[in-house]
């Protein structure tokens, strides 16, 4: 398997925690890249990417991803395979649970990327999510506040899935 660029904010506690676990599960093929300082060249240097995209406020991308969106919109991502994980709070924000994952997946697909790592929405309780497609999330939905004891198992299962889906 080719090197994987693991992009997330080094300054966000829960996303960093999840990214470290994902990176450990992949071993030395995962290269950690700070999403807060990423350049277009770094983003394009990997064919396989994993993005940590938490949902902020009422269904928004974090500032660091939002500021990088104009650069992404100008990129040709054909041939790139991307998996996305994101944190949300299904009880505190049930009307936009893990929307960040869906916003990013839609953007990357419009630029030609192939999204992998879809996970079941079963076991979650929420009103709506931009990440939802045919009862699956367009990535790994993590809820540290309400399902903290399930995080490690969900990550482990997701990484095993990604190992089969990445080329």
The gross shape turns out to be globular
Poorly predicted runs of 5 or more residues? none
Number of helices: 6
- Beta content: 15-25%
Please compute the radius of gyration using only Cα atoms: 14 Å
CATH-derived topology: Rossmann fold
Corresponding CATH superfamily: Flavodoxin domain
| Separation of the first and last Cα atoms | 6 Å
TL;DR?
By secondary structure, this protein is of the alpha/beta class. 37% of the residues lie in helices and 20% in strands.
Structure write-up:
There is one protein chain. With 167 residues, the protein is an alpha/beta fold. It has a single domain, classed as Flavodoxin domain (Rossmann fold, 3-Layer(aba) Sandwich). The chain is 37% helix and 20% strand. The protein has 6 helices and 9 strands; from the N terminus they run βαβαβαβαβββββαα. Strands 1, 2, 3, 4, 5 and 9 form a 6-stranded parallel β-sheet that branches. Helix 1 (13-26) links the parallel strand 1 and strand 2 (30-34). The chain starts with a strand and ends with a helix.
Present the secondary structure layout:
Layout: E1 4-8, H1 13-26, E2 30-34, H2 40-44, E3 48-52, H3 63-73, E4 81-87, H4 99-110, E5 114-116, E6 119-120, E7 132-133, E8 136-137, E9 140-142, H5 144-147, H6 151-165
Parallel strand pairs: 1-2, 1-3, 3-4, 4-5, 4-9
Antiparallel strand pairs: 6-8, 7-8
Helix pairs in contact: 1-6
Give me some keywords for this one.
3-stranded antiparallel β-sheet; 9 strands
């Amino acid at each position: 398997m080719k090197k994987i660029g693991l992009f997330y904010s080094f300054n966000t506690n829960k996303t960093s925690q999840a990214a470290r676990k994902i990176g450990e599960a992949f071993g030395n093929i995962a290269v950690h890249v700070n999403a807060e300082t990423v350049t277009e060249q770094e983003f394009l240097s990997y064919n396989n990417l994993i993005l940590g995209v938490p949902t902020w406020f009422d269904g928004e991308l974090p500032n660091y991803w939002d500021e990088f969106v104009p650069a992404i919109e100008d990129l040709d991502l054909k041939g790139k395979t991307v998996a996305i994980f994101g944190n949300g709070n299904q009880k505190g924000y049930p009307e936009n649970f893990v929307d960040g994952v869906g916003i990013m997946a839609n953007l990357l697909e419009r630029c030609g990327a192939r999204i992998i790592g879809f996970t079941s929405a079963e076991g979650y309780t929420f009103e709506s999510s931009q990440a939802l497609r045919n009862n699956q999330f367009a990535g790994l939905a993590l809820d540290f506040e309400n399902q903290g004891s399930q995080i490690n198992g969900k990550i482990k299962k997701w990484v095993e899935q990604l190992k089969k889906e990445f080329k």
